[in-house]
Each structure stands twice: as C-alpha cells, then as structure tokens.
Specification:
Layout lengths: L19 H31 L8 E4 L8 E6 L2 E7 L5 E5 L10 E3 L4 E3 L6 E3 L4 E3 L11 E4 L2 E4 L4
Length: 156
Amino acid sequence: MSGENGTSVQGREPDVPASPVLRSRRAFLIGLAAALGGGWLGAVLHRLFLAAPRTVQPARLRLADLPPGGHLVVTYAGKPVWVRWGADGQVEALSLVCTHLGCTVEWQEDTGEFRCPCHEGKFDAEGRATAGPPKLPLQRLRVRREGEVLWIGERL
C-alpha cells in the first residue's frame, strides 16, 4: 500500500521498473546461457545417438618387408609404430608416441634406446621409461600374423 506522497507503507520501496539497460543486459546473459547450454546438450546428444562409431583399421605389413633382425616404422591410427623382430623370434610393435606429452620418439641405433626430442625422455629397447619426465612405458600394440601378412593393432 502506498501513502499519499508515493512512499511505501511498512518500509517497502515502491515498484520501480528496471532500466532498459539492465533489462537488455539480463536478457542477453539469459540468452547466452541458454545458447551455450543448448549447444552443449546438442553436442552430447549427437555424440551419444547419431555419430557413427569410429573404426580404426589395423596397419597391414607383408612379412617379407620386415628385414631379418631389423625394424620398420608403420602408421596405425595416424600414429607412428615401430615394428621389429623380438629376441624370441616374434614380431613386436611399440607406439612411437611419448607417454609424457605425445611427441614422437626416435630410435637411437648407437645407444639402443628411444629418445624423445621434446623433453629428453628416454626409453629402453623394450619401451620402458629410463630417464626424463616420462613415467609410463611406450604402448605395446597387438601383432597378429595371418600367413605372410602382419596386422598391427586391433582388427575391427
């Protein structure tokens, strides 16, 4: 209730409409929040229900291309992989992606180790971290032999 001079009764202020600036700022922020929330929700729903599953094809290598006692670098899932004959006569595959920050490690023939040029990380010939920041070993990949063909990685 209001008194005669427009003051409110019982200590309440009279209803004053918000200024157009405050109203437009508030509307903008509400609209921005709704757009960001709607975009995020749409992305999540798309990924869950509509996105096609990504299939990664294994790397294919002819056994004859792998030199006896030697190694090759192939690509699996867009990343370099070192393929070699192991001490037990089986073919082994190690990812050449450093487990520290994802740089590509390089094989050092003279020292018999992998070296990461980014932060001086070192790995032994089995892929175990031996020096520098990396704590985890290089990732080993599955190798499957079908006759004279080697499949590196998972075959989907």
